Structure formats: structure tokens, C-alpha cells
Amino acid sequence: MNDGLSAVAVGEGPPLVALPGLGQGADLSVRVPRTAAWSTTALASGFKRTVHLIHRPVRPAPGMTIARLAGWHATALRERFGEPVDVMGTSGGGITALQLALDHPRTVRRLVLCIAASRVGKHGLRDLLRMVELEREGRSTARIGSRLIAHGPLRLLLLAAFGLSRSRPRAPGEAALVEAAQTWDVTGRLGEIGAPVLVVGGTRDRLVPPDLVRATASGIPDARLVLLPGRGHATALFDPRMKSAISAFLAEPTR
Question: Is 2-117+188-251 a CATH 3.40.50.1820 domain?
């Protein structure tokens, strides 16, 4: 697609654009990672939608900002659909989705923000940047990464899994998103959003703390808020209450 974006679609039904969180990055025109294939298929089956997973560029143009990234997505959505569509952004993808709704409102019909807010918590920003630095040096990020997205037994499991896997640098597009997020904050513009919005987060999310999730929902006119008690950045995604809330939201008629 334009500007290095790539996409894969699966399922049947009305379109739902999914913007994923941080990962190692992939050009979906070359290969679809197993986790991306599994999650996209699960979304399509669960929501009875044609899910269009759009990945950020693996090697973006220098000086990428969240606003520029959102602009690239806006071009892609106009060319692909020609009308506003439902958009769901998760974590790092939620940052882009929120900027998209602000700068290019005619591309977004409804917006779902999963474990994302109008800015990232300061501790999370620091840890993400440190992870990128360690990856570039070929050093393990297991301790920081597991602490960011999980707690309790799950964190221990992820710590072991990350520790056993070979550390490798993120794709430039993933690192660029982390760097761009360091100064990203659209809290003061939330009142501009006119599309229906659902904001979902967890009360134990270290990367996107619940106070930021609440503030984001409060700042968007008529936004819905679902905070999942005891859930962290990773566990919130597997909570069945998140799926139920999103399904009900997407089933409602739009204005």
C-alpha cells in the first residue's frame, strides 16, 4: 500500500480496520506472522466482520511522527474503502487510530481504543525507549518487557519465554513509533472527535495506566468507557468482557 503500509484481510461482513500494537514488524505483502494470522482470524470470527489488518511501514521515511503515520493511514483508507469505516486500534495502533480520528475524521465511522489513551504513561515511555536501546545492542529485554505488559504468574511465564527467545532489534518502523510516542499527547484535542468512541483498558496496566484511560474517555464527547478490574496490558486483551463490549458497540447503529 502507500507509504510502505501493508494489509491483509480475512472474514466476511462489514469492514473493520485493525491497527495492531508494537511487535517486531512485518511486511504483510511478503508474509503474515502466525500471531497476526491467528489474532486477525479470531477477530473476524468473533465480530462477524471482514477484518483488514494494516501494518505500519517496516522502514518508514525519516522523521516519522504519529501525525504523519496517521496521514499515511488516511490515504490508505480512502483508497481502499472510499467512505468512513470502523477502526479498532490496540496499544501502539490505538495511538495512530486516535490521531487518525482527530486529523482525518471523514475516514473513521466508529473508533475502538483498546489499552490505549491520548498519551502514554511516563514510566511506560521510559521503559519502551530503553527496550529499543537494549535491542539495538543485542541485549535481553525480557525483564522490562514482561514487567510492562503483565503481572503475577503471567509475568513470570513471559519472563521465561522472552529469556529463551533470541533477542533481535525491532524493525525501524516499530522503533520509530516508540520514539515518536515520546512527545505525543493529544489530550487537549479530544473534544474535537465527533465519531462514536469506545475506550477499553485495564486497572493494572502499567503502560497505559487507568487514570489516563479515564481521562481519555472523559475528554471525548459521549465516549463509552470499559475498565476491566485487575487486568494489565496483555491480560485485558484476553478478557471476554472486552470482546462483549466491542461487539455490542459495533452492533449499534451510527448517527
Answer: yes
Q: Quick one: three-class SS letters along 48-85?
A: CCEEEEEECCCCCCCCCCHHHHHHHHHHHHHHHHCCCE
Q: Which of 12, 43, 14 minimizes the C-alpha distance to 109?
A: 14
Which residues make beta-bridge pairs with 90? 114
Residue extents of the structural domains in the chain: 2-117+188-251, 123-172
Cα(61)–Cα(4) distance, integer angstroms: 9
242: Cβ contacts below 8 Å, ≥ 6 apart: 114, 200, 226, 228, 236
pLDDT tens digits along 118-165: 999 888 889 888 888 888 878 777 677 666 666 666 655 655 556 555
Whether 196 contacts 204, CB under 8 Å = no
pLDDT for res 153: 62
